[in-house]
Specification:
Layout: H1 9-20, E1 36-40, H2 48-60, E2 64-69, H3 71-80, E3 85-88, H4 99-109, E4 115-118, H5 126-141, E5 146-148, H6 151-158, E6 169-171, H7 175-184, H8 195-204, E7 209-212, E8 217-220, E9 228-230, H9 242-261, H10 273-299, H11 305-319
């Protein structure tokens, strides 16, 4: 049994609220109801990131986890796990098809998804970026919750209006990406990447939820009411790919949030859209940090992103879990 994490009273209260969004496993639920999450990413040079994100989503409890990527990436990702549904739809330059044509089958999938993660392994190819821009626009029109990371943030940096004002969107920048986004929207944070800087960036983007990753994770949509800090202990190794566990975890929690808001079961409380969006982001942060802590205890400096994937179900049961199983 792993050591229990140190947790502040405020963190315990937040996690109790996260648990309220976790759907029970009822006989009446059919395949797909407990989460249909897709990850757009995966290109010629990057195949690990979308896999880690999609697997975190699946290991946390999503019923169906998709990866939408380029054909070369699809061939590789399919060998990683038979549990993922891999769609070789995306295309990199040069290619004869337009971004709109490529985006069309992805947009058709949106009606069947609870949430969409964009960015892991996406790259900065012009055609890939243009295709994603089309998908984001369509997702907004259909009110599909979004999680944007990595090179999807590079797209937002260049075209902030794609997400500005979209209250179903979570951005997960690290400190460097945060600074670039702040500069792109004309924000002078004076080097403040903490609470006030996070609030300022969220406000500048019209109330999107920002998760500023770092030694602690600041989470805000711009108001004091829904600004929180994820300060649970994590591991000390900063290997690449750990942020993909975060995006996949948030993706699944957003799917469950949708079920909670629709009252798909006899839900507790009456939490609204803003609070539950914050809780999905906070829950993803807490789970990722606990995965990092557990993996680091076992692996030390040899820790890799795949080690976090293995710890997702353990972290869930420790921090959130079924009501009778939570260790907090």
């Amino acid at each position: 049994m792993p050591d229990q994490p140190e947790m502040s009273p405020a963190a315990k209260e937040l996690l109790k609220k996260v648990r309220m969004m976790v759907p029970p496993m009822l006989e009446k639920f059919h395949k797909g109801m407990l989460g249909r999450v897709a990850v757009i990413g995966g290109s010629e040079n990057y195949t690990g990131a979308p896999y880690f994100s999609a697997m975190a989503s699946a290991r946390l409890g999503a019923d169906l986890s998709h990866v939408i990527c380029t054909p070369p990436a699809a061939n590789v990702i399919k060998t990683y796990s038979p549990n993922l549904m891999v769609h070789p739809i995306m295309r990199e330059s040069p290619h004869h098809a337009t971004a709109s044509t490529i985006a069309s089958p992805v947009i058709a999938m949106l009606a069947h998804l609870h949430s969409l993660v964009i960015g892991p392994g996406l790259g900065r190819d012009d055609l890939m970026q243009a295709t994603v821009a089309e998908v984001i626009t369509a997702a907004r029109e259909k009110s599909v919750p979004l999680v944007l990371d990595a090179d999807a943030l590079w797209l937002v940096q260049r075209k902030p209006d794609l997400v500005r004002g979209y209250k179903e969107c979570v951005l997960t920048p690290n400190v460097v990406e945060f600074g670039r986004l702040a500069t792109a929207v004309g924000l002078d944070t004076k080097g403040d990447t903490g609470k006030e800087g996070c609030k300022a960036l969220a406000n500048a983007l019209g109330g999107v939820m920002v998760v500023r990753k770092g030694p602690v994770d600041w989470i805000s949509e711009g108001s004091d009411e829904w600004t929180v800090v994820g300060d649970a202990q994590g591991g000390k190794k900063r290997s690449g790919g750990q942020g993909d566990t975060l995006t996949g975890s948030i993706g699944t929690l957003l799917a469950w949030r949708g079920m909670y808001l629709e009252k798909a079961w006899d839900v507790e409380g009456d939490m609204g859209r803003e609070e539950t969006l914050m809780l999905a982001a906070y829950g993803g942060s807490a789970i990722t940090r606990e995965c990092s802590r557990l993996a680091f205890e076992k692996r030390g400096r040899s820790l890799q992103a795949s080690d976090l994937t293995d710890e997702v179900p353990v972290a869930f049961l420790t921090l959130i879990g079924e009501k009778e199983e939570s260790k907090l």
